[in-house]
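Project standup — Tuesday

K.O.: blocked on the structure for the chain from last sprint. Re-posting the sequence here as requested.
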Amino acid sequence: MNQVLVTGAAGFIGAHLSKALLAEGYQVVGIDNLNDYYDVQLKHDRLAWFDGNANFTFIQCNLADKETMEKLFAEYAFEAVVNLAAQAGVRYSIDHPHAYAESNLVGFLNVLEGCRAQNVKHLVYASSSSVYGENKKIPFSVEDRVDNPISLYAATKKSNELMAHAYAHLYGIPTTGLRFFTVYGPWGRPDMAYFKFAKAITAGQAIDVYNYGDMKRDFTYIDDVVEALTRLIKKPPQAKEAAPYQLYNIGNHSPETLMDFIAAIEDALGKKAIKNMLPIQAGDVPSTYADVGPLMADVGFKPSTPMREGVNKFVQWYRSYYGA
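H.V.: unblocked you, prediction finished:
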């Protein structure tokens, strides 16, 4: 049975992916530092999915802890590594830059070193649509130049892509970077806008609507993200231009306006939002739009869950989990 390391296993995508991999017969070692960036209880409740599963091992540790990471890679023989652990959030990076350097740069370097030392056959890692910055060409393509990040978070994710390419070139480690586009759904992250909207609307409080609502996002449902991940794990890239290196957009290829997204949440909750219209925030971008042609060509799949269907499923979970 193949062993897979999933970093950030208590996180939104990490927990869902671990569940899917276990269902496919993999042995999963999940690591997470369980930091308090958002409600830690939600992370523990995700991990509770795996209670009693002999094929899941959880280890609480920090990616930036070099010694612990070296021991981890020495102890296990990972067929593949999926690095989803990171300090997330564009806005948080404005005020907490050092958290991003530690987790997203030092931590990712330790993952790369572990893969090098153990000759891991495939490293899949989370990048972000944030790397596109204020790219005016749409849809966003992995062939586009992304040399002008507008947040430190985006800069660290672009750095991950560069670091992965260096290790793919130097040591022949097959690496696949995934630029995620606004992932949402049940068990999601409370720091995300849709989660904040549901909480505020339910409580009768105002929601902050940035850029006066003139925003578009390529909202991507969690089940589609997991499907793409499970397919890609089995498809390590072949060497091209001297490195076994690949990038993919993971998005719905169907941008929705922020106001339509809010309307979907209102309809699902059966309650109107009180809107506090505000200018765009530093580091934010007006629109995102994923070109998923390469993903479809290589694994025969692209995200396609309709936004309202995904929102309805999120709201059903939200009400159940919080008793709202």
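K.O.: great, moving the ticket to review. The chain has a mean pLDDT of 95. The chain has eleven helices and 13 strands.
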